[in-house]
Every structure is written in C-alpha cells, then in structure tokens.
Specification:
heterodimer; A: 2 domains; 4-stranded mixed beta sheet; 12 helices; globular; B: alpha/beta
Chain lengths: 256, 260
C-alpha cells in the first residue's frame, strides 16, 4: 500500500486515511488508484463491517489535484480519471463514514458526500470553490448539495464558491455530527462500532433503500423499500433479530 | 504602526501611533491582523498582550484617514470597512487558542473598546477610561460592541452609555465587568507582565478548551451578529446625520442632527 493512503484495520472496522498533508490531501491519480484498491479489498474482507474514510488534521481533502488534472487529455480524464474513486465510494456495499477535519473542498467535499454519513470536527470548512477557476463541481456537488440542503443553498455555494463553517454545514443538514478535532476519529469509530454491531445484511439493505430515495419517485422508492424489507424479514439475521428481541437476549448475526 | 516583541513567552502587540492616540487606520489593522497570526503560529508564544504606546490604549477608527472623502461629500460604506478590516480582528482574537490579554494603558474609545472586549482578559490602568464616541458622529457601536456591550452592561445601560456619549470611568467599567483587573498606573506594565507570564505557564490546552467552549455557546452567533452590525453601520454611514457629525467633529463645533 502506498504511503499516500494508509489503511488500518481494527475489525470489525477499518480506517482509510488520505495522507498527503503538505498538499492538503489533493487527490492525484496515484492516490485515487490506491483508495480504489483499498476499498476493493475492504469490501471483500469478511472481517470488516464498517469503513471510516478520513484525512489529516488540516484537511480531509481539497479535491482533485488540479495541477495534475490540467496536464491530462480528455480520454484519460473520462476513461481512467478521478471518477473511479467517487464511483467506487458510491457503490461501496458496506457503511462508509467520512471523518472530516479541516478543509473539505471541491472533490473532497463531494467525496465526503458520497459516503453514508459525515462526522466533522467543529473547525472543519466545506465548499465548492471550482467556480473561482471557471470550473464547476464534477463529482456530485451540484446534485448532492441540492438534494441535501436544497436548491437555493446549492446555488449559493456553487455559484459563489463561499466556504461554510462546520456549524453552518451542520445546520443545513450537510453533516451528521460535530465533535472537537481532538476526538474526531474516536467519535467516528464509536459510530462505526455501533453500526458494526448490527446485521451487515440489514445494513446493506437499509443503505440501498435510503439511496433509492435519491434516485427514484416516491412510489417506486416505496416499492423498492418494501422489497428490501421483505428480504430482511426472511433473512436468517432478520429471523434471529426478531427472535432475540422476543427472548430478551443479544442477537448473533451471520450476515445472511 | 504596530510594535511586536516576545518576552518570556509573552507576545506584546503594541499599537504604536501615540501621536493620534493609536487610532486605527487601514495599515494598522492589517499589521494587527498579521501580528495576531504570527503570535498564534509561534510555538514560543504562550500568551498574547494587546496594548498601546503613550497615554491611550486605542481611540478606535482613524476618521482622519477618511477626511478627504467626507470633505468631498462622498458616502462611505462603513459596512464593508467593518467586514474587511475590523471583524476579522475580532474573529481572530476569539479563535486564537492562546490567552489574549487587553492591557488597557489609558483611554479606550470606539473600536478600541471592541478589541479589548473580545480579549480573554482585560487589565486596565487606573488612568484608563472608556468613551463609545459613535453617537457623536451618528454611527452605531461596531467591531462587535452591539453584541458584547449588552451582555456586559444590559441593553438599557448600553443604550444610555451610547446615547449620552459619556465617559465610563475605570471603576464603573470594573464594576460591570468591562474590565477584569484594575492596576495602579505606576505599576501597570510590571503587573501586566506578571499576569501574562503567569498565564503563559498555565495549563494552555485547558485554556484553549475553555475558550472553545465559550466560543461555542457564549459567542455562538458572534459572526452573524458582526454581519448584521455591519449592515446597520452601512445604513448609518449613508445618513445625513453621520456626515453632519463628522463635519462638526472636524470643524470642532456641535452637530445639528436631523434624524435622517
């Protein structure tokens, strides 16, 4: 594993750290490939149930390495570029939590928004500053901010490039929890362990259904949810969970 | 404009224009911001003192800087001046994770009071006194004073102090909590240094955590308040009364306000 990306496993959770602090974790292609590889392995690892994606103290990530990107040709960007990372996170089957400290900008913010939850240090800063170099967000910023915080807020952040404080991001529904920077990873791990105590199958079905809320109409989404509910109900874990609840004991899940 | 010196872990940031009672012009505020950043970054610095040279701490904005605009009858956007120059200083003082002490060596007026009020501790000389001064020129208290003064004095007394343009003695300031410690002028500098050195050898991490806790609730909506205050000052700055107040001040006569 490259030093640009550090993976530390502490089953049932794993922490993936972007580690290019002098560049505020700007994502170059080497980092993108390392992250994708790390996530592939963690998804396949049966001991890992929840993943935390984090950066370093001064930055989660300031997005794609713009210097490197300016040297790429169109086919390279389209076929082999940074998008593989955001796609990889989006399709990750296990819960993935972004733990954000410092700057979380552009593609970095979009990467955090691709995760399932965001825990942020109370001095984190978020923004989509692409407009200041005559670009626009390219990995979901226009869509996800609009859905999470509303169209007006998305317009403001993306058209002005203004940064928002962690508190404002929290108030606008862009962040789940605020914690002091000293406790960021501790609290993200606490949340991850809480999730890891649940049935991995139920987590995957629930995650899939919530994501459907963004993709479909309400009636299609409700049908989708009902199908996932029935899958959960007739799974081994579902039966075990209900039985344990009735028998007032801790459930033993197998992920089936 | 600013003298900067580090002594025994204490950074002294000295407003250094005694000939104008340390009035704040653009350059002074830029240097003040830079000095605060340096002190915040410097690992040797464990406490910060903001003080003034001469008989004044700071008399606030340097209206002389804007004089020619006024004499040409030009309107000035005081909201933008606050946003660009003053509010960042206030936010910096609150966000530096080291104790910041205002050593009020003499008279403080206008934004000078604002800067002192947002420090972590205010030590005043027995010769210190406070004058809001904004009312004389048809402006409202700024640099966060609309936020902090009612929290110190209550809103009624804030209005009284503002509208009367009266002087607040160091004893009254001490009584209400605008000043935390009063020291006889003859031993002021020695005492300030003693307090600062003592803080510098204290549990700095705990100080920083307390500061963050205070910022999180006591000062929770400070930035929004600064923004609103800037809007109010922008409106005040466009009034005829403001222009009249400034011209009366320059011409050393009583202003004739019309309420517009």
């Amino acid at each position: 594993m490259s030093q640009l990306v550090e993976v530390s496993k502490d089953p049932p959770i794993a922490v993936v750290r972007m580690n290019r602090p002098d560049a505020l974790n700007a994502l170059n292609l080497e980092m993108v490939r390392s992250l994708v590889k790390a996530l592939d392995e963690l998804e396949a690892d049966p001991d890992i149930k929840v993943v935390i994606l984090t950066g370093t103290e001064r930055a989660f990530s300031v997005g794609a390495d713009i210097k490197e990107m300016s040297g790429l040709e169109l086919p390279e960007v389209y076929l082999r570029g940074h998008r593989q990372l955001w796609d990889r996170v989006r399709r990750f089957k296990k819960p993935i939590i972004a733990a954000v400290s410092g700057y979380c900008l552009g593609g970095g913010f979009e990467l955090a928004m691709s995760c399932d939850m965001i825990v942020a240090s109370d001095d984190a800063r978020f923004g989509q500053p692409e407009i200041n170099v005559a670009l626009i967000p390219g990995e979901g910023g226009t869509q996800r901010i609009a859905r999470a915080a509303g169209r007006l807020i998305a317009m403001e952040l993306i058209l002005t490039g203004r940064f928002v404080s962690a508190r404002e991001a929290y108030m606008r529904g862009l962040v789940n929890r605020l914690v002091p920077r000293e406790l960021l990873l501790d609290h993200a791990k606490r949340l991850a362990r809480e999730l890891a105590s649940k049935s991995p199958l139920a987590l995957a079905l629930a995650k899939d259904a919530v994501n459907a809320a963004w993709e479909t109409t309400l009636s299609a989404g409700l049908d989708y949810e009902r199908r996932n509910f029935i899958l959960a109900l007739f799974s081994e874990d579902g039966r075990e969970g209900v039985r344990a609840f009735i028998e007032k004991r801790q459930p033993q899940y197998k992920g089936r | 404009m600013i003298a900067y010196e580090v002594k025994e872990g204490v950074a002294y940031i000295r407003l250094n224009r005694p000939e104008v009672l340390n009035a704040l012009n653009k350059e002074t505020l830029e240097q003040l911001a830079k000095a605060l950043d340096n002190a915040a970054r410097d690992g040797e610095v464990r406490a910060i003192v903001i003080t003034g040279t001469g008989r004044a701490f700071c008399v606030g904005a340097d209206l002389g800087e804007l004089r020619e605009f006024y004499e040409r009858g030009e309107k000035i956007n005081h909201g933008d001046i606050l946003r660009q120059r003053y509010n960042p200083i206030i936010v910096r003082i609150r966000s530096i994770e080291k104790p910041v002490i205002a050593a009020i060596n003499g008279v403080a007026a206008g934004a000078g009071i604002g800067i002192a009020a947002f420090c972590d501790l205010r030590v005043a000389s027995s010769t210190a006194k406070f004058i809001l001064a904004f009312g004389r020129v048809g402006l409202i208290p700024d640099s966060g004073l609309t936020y902090i003064l009612p929290r110190i004095f209550g809103h009624g007394r804030t209005f009284e102090i503002y509208s009367s343009n009266r002087e607040i003695s160091v004893n009254e300031a001490h009584h209400f909590g605008l000043v935390d410690i009063v020291v006889d002028h003859s031993e002021f500098e020695a005492k300030v240094h003693e307090i600062a050195v003592k803080l510098a050898s204290g549990p700095l991490k705990a100080y920083a955590l307390l500061k963050r806790a205070l910022n999180n609730h006591y000062f929770q909506d400070l930035e929004l308040a600064l923004e609103y205050e800037a809007y109010m000052q922008e409106v005040a700055g466009y009034t005829d009364d403001h222009m009249e107040g400034v011209l009366a001040f320059i011409q050393k006569r009583e202003p004739r306000f019309k309420g517009k």
